[in-house]
């Protein structure tokens, strides 16, 4: 058991002062506001619950910044994808582990305490399954265990190169499974995370262009009640190709043909009609937004104001992991809306409301639902995932309560996270993860070989 005391903490009921939190066996056992620190309490200034990165492709952290050279034609998501394929085809399981470990260290240093790993780099470099079909999933689990981050593993089913059951691209060979292979992969992946504290599992049909309707129907039961994540309507070309195939847009097709409910998370959903926005919001499914990646890839801007006005719920993810930061994703989300609508404080949803606090609360709730967490925030029964901010940071100085979150998201630019507890273990102190140096050395060695 450990006792933590915070001068100020954001609880599910709102901000409270002089809060003692008791942690037992990795979970929060008690939260008591309005008490003076007791002997033996570890004292800190400002506490927040950790956020979830609900959508991550860990291996892509290794190629961050390597696709910024313009080609002969207009660069798009589709040209970026070719660079990604080349990088993915070169990685060994050891490379996967090294890259994922540093990524998860960086996530924790930036305020993410759980990751939804949308994992599709399954097979060996020639496309043949490893002897253990979940070899790379096990490496993801090892990276999560080493770093301390909570893992929601989302093995991805990928069978086709485009809509209508098109043959897969040669660059996709490490991703491809039959339905029977995927069932085997799911069983092995469950074993890989069985002893990992805080871990759970769902499934991730990659997208409608990669999964045929009968395959989607066949694999959904493999989630066994867990979360179901799918890419949808990220690119205009994807929407056009889906219309040509089915006469329906991707989100429209899913809402008409799949059992979309609160277990589901539609990743990106960037290009929707007004009718799709409203219908999606009513399902209770989460919009998995990845604002930095969506900006990096030129995807477009999600209809966030309209979706929230319709009662929708969102969470944020780091996706391609080109830049890691909970505050960065939330800031980019709001700034995209400001550019779109030419207004300020677009997503605050009410006069006098803090934009940062509103974004934080929404992302906390959406991430918890998308990754199937029954208890969220600093509350008894929740996993002890706690983030403290540095009250001496220049962008937080003199601020209290919601103004602290506004300062962190919109002004700090880094260095504001002080300590992080993951499952009750302090893994970050003074802004530095305990494994930062060794994780960087392993990552650098792996990426030097891959780049060469």
Automatic annotation (TrEMBL):
Its cofactor is Zn(2+). GO terms for molecular function: deaminase activity; metal ion binding. It comes from the Bacteria. GO terms for cellular component: cytosol. Residues 2-45 form the Formimidoylglutamate deiminase N-terminal domain. Pfam families: Amidohydro_1, HutF_N. The keyword Plastid does not apply. Keywords: Hydrolase, Metal-binding, Zinc. Residues 46-427 form the Amidohydrolase-related domain. PANTHER family: AMIDOHYDROLASE-RELATED DOMAIN-CONTAINING PROTEIN, GUANINE DEAMINASE. This is Formimidoylglutamate deiminase. It comes from Bradyrhizobium huanghuaihaiense.
């Amino acid at each position: 058991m450990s006792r933590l005391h915070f001068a100020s903490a954001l609880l599910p009921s709102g901000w409270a002062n002089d809060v003692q939190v008791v942690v037992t066996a990795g979970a929060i056992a008690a939260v008591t506001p309005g008490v003076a620190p007791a002997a033996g309490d570890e004292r800190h200034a400002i506490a927040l619950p950790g956020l979830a990165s609900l959508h991550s492709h860990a291996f892509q952290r290794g190629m961050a910044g390597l696709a910024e050279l313009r080609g002969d034609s207009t660069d798009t998501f589709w040209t970026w994808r070719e660079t990604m394929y080349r990088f993915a085809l070169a990685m060994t399981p050891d490379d996967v582990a090294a890259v994922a470990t540093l990524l998860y260290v960086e996530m924790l240093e930036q305020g993410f305490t759980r990751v939804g790993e949308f994992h599709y780099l399954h097979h060996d470099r020639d496309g043949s399954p490893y002897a253990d079909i979940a070899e790379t999933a096990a490496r993801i689990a090892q990276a999560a265990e080493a770093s301390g981050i909570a893992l929601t593993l989302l093995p991805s089913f990928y069978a086709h190169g485009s809509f209508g059951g098109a043959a897969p691209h040669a660059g996709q060979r490490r991703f491809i499974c039959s339905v029977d292979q995927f069932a085997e992969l799911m069983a092995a992946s469950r074993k890989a995370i069985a002893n990992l504290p805080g871990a759970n599992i769902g499934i991730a049909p990659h997208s409608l262009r990669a999964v045929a309707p009968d395959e989607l129907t066949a694999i959904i039961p493999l989630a066994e009640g867990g979360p179901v994540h799918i890419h949808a309507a990220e690119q205009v070309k994807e929407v056009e190709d889906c219309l040509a195939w089915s006469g329906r847009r991707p989100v429209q097709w899913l809402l008409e043909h799949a059992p979309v409910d609160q277990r589901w998370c539609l990743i990106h959903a960037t290009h929707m009609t007004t009718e799709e926005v409203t219908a999606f919001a009513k399902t209770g499914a989460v919009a998995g937004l990845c604002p930095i990646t969506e900006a990096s890839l030129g995807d477009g801007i999600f209809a966030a104001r309209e979706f929230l006005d319709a009662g929708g719920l969102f969470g944020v993810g780091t996706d391609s992991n080109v830049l890691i930061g909970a505050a960065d994703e939330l800031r980019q989300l709001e700034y995209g809306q400001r550019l779109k609508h030419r207004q300020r404080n677009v997503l605050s949803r009410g006069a006098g409301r803090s934009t940062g606090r509103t974004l934080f609360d929404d992302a906390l709730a959406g991430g918890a639902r998308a990754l199937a967490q029954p208890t969220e925030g600093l509350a008894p029964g929740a996993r002890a995932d706690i983030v403290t901010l540095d009250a001496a940071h220049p962008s937080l100085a003199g601020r209290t309560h919601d103004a602290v979150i506004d300062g962190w998201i919109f002004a700090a630019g880094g260095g504001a996270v002080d300590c992080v507890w993951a499952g009750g273990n302090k893994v970050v102190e003074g802004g530095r993860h305990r494994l930062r140096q060794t994780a960087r050395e392993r990552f650098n060695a792996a990426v030097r070989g891959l780049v060469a």
